[in-house]
Amino acid sequence: MASLDSHRPGLLASLNGKYHRAALLTFALVVVAHWAEHLVQAFQIYALGWKTADARGVLGIPFPKLISSEWLHYGYAIVMLIFLFALRKGFAGRSRQWWNLALGLQFWHHIEHLLLLIQAQSGWRLGGGTAPSSIIQLFIPRVELHLFYNTIVTIPMIIAMIVHRKASAVERQLTGCTCSPESRRELATAAS
């Protein structure tokens, strides 16, 4: 005899179906908060003239260990990667292509943070420097590089979300997602 729960979708199916919109909004808030930290740090350096070591964003001022913790930076890179992967099935067609691009770019960003974490833990330094360095950081300073990485990951994410909200009927049917206004109207019509 099948259990009553056998017809309930799992967590990933729910996150990519009826809760996709809420999951995307939650994820977007996390991304915006992270962006705010990077933008405040850039403002502190370029507008206020602070030294890079003193420019720690918003949370780094009261909690300086946050900004210097490679575990925190790597943890955020992993969270981004997990969310991009976990929410992927809620996209179809062109929006899925854009989301996949963001996922691929974040995978590389995660590799760079993994390399930084390994160096911080082991004492080994890429390029023989005095501080941990990612591969691209050998050519571009860290603050600017991470603004760049966050930009190239966020832009395809935003495009994916916009295209996803305008999904065709076929794409909506493929995903079962309720993000688009049309799918919410269809649900309201079916419920009445």
From TrEMBL:
| TM spans (from-to) | 71-87, 147-164
Alphabetically sorted, this entry's keywords are: Membrane, Transmembrane, Transmembrane helix
What domain of life does the UniProt record list for this protein's source?
Answer: Bacteria
- State the name under which the record lists this protein: Transmembrane protein
**Organism encoding this protein:** Amycolatopsis azurea DSM 43854
Question: Taxonomic lineage per UniProt?
Answer: Bacteria, Bacillati, Actinomycetota, Actinomycetes, Pseudonocardiales
